[in-house]
From TrEMBL:
GO terms for biological process: DNA repair; DNA-templated DNA replication. HAMAP family: RfcS (MF_01509). Part of the RFC clamp loader complex which loads the PCNA sliding clamp onto DNA. InterPro entries: AAA+_ATPase (IPR003593), ATPase_AAA_core (IPR003959), DNA_pol3_clamp-load_cplx_C (IPR008921), DNA_Rep/Repair_Clamp_Loader (IPR050238), P-loop_NTPase (IPR027417), Rep_factor-C_ssu_arc (IPR023748), Rep_factorC_C (IPR013748), RFC_lid (IPR047854). It comes from the Archaea. GO terms for molecular function: ATP binding; ATP hydrolysis activity; DNA binding; DNA clamp loader activity. This is Replication factor C small subunit. GO terms for cellular component: DNA replication factor C complex. Keywords: ATP-binding, DNA replication, Nucleotide-binding.
């Protein structure tokens, strides 16, 4: 028994020693781990301090670790840059979409439609809007006038009382039954009526337009509809008869030129006179196209000139169109076809755009009326065939061949 007790005591002591050893190893591992964490944090602090400009010595741990310092590895600190503050602000301004940045906020800012603006201002001043139909080509101010009316009627809360829908995306009858009726039914405070703006309403199906006609009658006490379209002939007569129709014509060249000058001065862009004339020509009464062309051309170089505008807008120079047609009328089909090939291949201009420019420029050519009528007839036939799916190059070459033969 004595021997047995001694063996048990020695084993117990051995186990205790092993436990102490294991515990000591665990403690040492914990200390090493903590030390590694401290060294790691110290190293992070040194790096972060260097980035912030505050250098910490390796032997002295930083007194604090800021959250922004550690987060700098994810979000990135602000490194010193050679770009000046003015250049940074200028580049930030160029990143904005100018057609939204310079969109008129009030009716007084809308250019080129004095008669329409005067009538709309009278509606707003009396707070007595009727259903309205805005018809006209793209980029002439239809959407701008609709949002300007809402801003002047409702002030800063205009978005709460203004529903804008693009009918080309949501063109089915379910849109009229669900979204429009739900908006019209909801309660509102402080205003007599709300506005529903349907952009590109001519894309609505006939069933949707029929349902919309009934909705306009049902909610006429608390909702006013503003419909925008490119072709009023696509709107059914019952809707047109319920609306005051405003027809927006393409903007005059003077109005487009004035706005382009103002934007160029605001953005500190060097705009040459021939560049301005090229923008006005390429826009063809579309203010949105002119502003987009100015922004795109300003990125490609310090100066916006004629060559930059024609290159960025994929527009043929008027003299090239004139040379192509005149060569065909003179019977030189080879030269005329070479000009056409350069426009289609090297400059990448679409055949439909060439047709449009031909139609715009025909009366500017130095040709007699008989020749002009003959060219217009060929242009119409070629345009019809292209829209029906025929090959653009083949049809344009056939048109030039017909003109060269004097047919």
């Amino acid at each position: 028994m004595v021997v047995l007790d001694g063996l048990i005591r020695r084993n117990v002591l051995a186990v205790d020693e092993d436990r102490h050893l294991v515990g000591a190893q665990v403690d040492r591992r914990k200390q090493v781990g903590v030390g590694r964490i401290r060294v790691h944090l110290q190293f992070v602090g040194v790096l972060a301090g260097d980035l912030d400009g505050d250098v910490h010595t390796p032997t002295t741990p930083p007194t604090h670790l800021r959250l922004s310092t550690l987060a700098g590895f994810k979000t990135g600190p602000r490194f010193p840059s050679s770009m000046s503050e003015a250049e940074s602000e200028s580049r930030a301004g160029r990143e904005e979409v100018w057609i939204e940045k310079y969109r008129p906020q009030t009716l007084d800012d809308v250019m080129g439609h004095e008669n329409i603006v005067g009538r709309l201002k009278s509606y707003v001043s009396r707070n007595d809007l009727s259903h309205m139909l805005f018809s006209g080509p793209a980029g002439t101010g239809k959407t701008t006038c609709a949002t300007a009316i809402a801003r002047e009627l409702y002030g800063e809360d205009w978005r709460e009382h203004f529903l804008e829908l693009n009918a080309s995306d949501e063109r089915g009858i379910d849109v009229v039954r669900d979204r429009i009726k739900n908006f019209a039914r909801t309660s509102f405070g402080g205003v007599e009526y709300r506005i529903i703006f349907l952009d590109e309403a001519d894309a609505l199906t006939s069933d949707a337009q029929s349902a919309l006609r009934r909705t306009m009658e049902q909610f006429s006490n608390n909702v006013r509809f503003i419909l925008s379209c490119n072709y009023s002939s696509q709107i059914i007569d019952p809707i047109q008869s319920r609306c005051a129709v405003f027809r927006f014509s393409p903007l005059a060249d003077d109005a487009v030129a004035e706005e382009i000058r103002n934007i160029a001065a605001e953005e500190d862009i060097e705009l040459t006179e021939d560049g301005l004339d090229a923008l006005v020509y390429a826009a063809d009464g579309d203010m949105r196209k002119a502003i987009n062309g100015l922004q795109a051309a300003s990125v490609s170089g310090d100066t916006v000139d004629e060559s930059a505008v024609y290159a960025i807008t994929s527009t043929a120079r008027p003299e090239e169109i004139r040379t192509m047609v005149q060569s065909a009328l003179d019977g030189d089909f080879t030269a005329s076809r070479a000009t056409l090939d350069r426009l289609l291949t090297e400059e990448g201009i679409a055949g439909g755009d060439i047709i449009d420019q031909l139609h715009r420029s025909i009366w500017e050519f130095d040709i007699d009326d008989e020749a002009a009528v003959r060219v217009l007839e060929r242009i119409g036939e070629t345009d019809y065939r292209i829209t029906r799916g025929a090959n653009e190059r083949v049809q344009l070459e056939a048109m030039l061949a017909s003109l060269a033969q004097g047919e």
